[in-house]
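Appendix C reproduces, verbatim, an entry submitted by the partner laboratory led by Prof. M.T., so that reviewers can inspect both the input and the predicted structure.
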Amino acid sequence: MKVLLTGSSKGIGFKIAQDLIIEGHDMALHYNKNKSSIESLLKEKKSKSFSVQADLSSKSQIKKLIEDTIKKFSFPDCIEMFFINSCCI
C-alpha cells in the first residue's frame, strides 16, 4: 500500500512509519524541520519510501506536499495525519 504519513519525524508518527515500512508499505514520510530521523529510517530500511518536507500551516506547501507525493508514486492509497495542536497542550 502507498501511504502519505504526515508528522512522521518523531513520536507516534515515527513509530507508525517504522512499522509500516517493516510491513512492506511504500511511504511518503512528511516532516517539517526534523529530516534526520526520517533519513536514518530510510537508510536502515531499504524501500521505495521517501521523505518530503512541508509546513502544514501553509496552504501552498500542503499543495506541494500532495503534488510531490503524486509525482513519486501516484496518488496514495492512504493518508494518515499526525500532529499536535500546541494551543491544546
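The two ends are 33 Å apart (CA to CA). Additional entries are available on request from the coordinating office.
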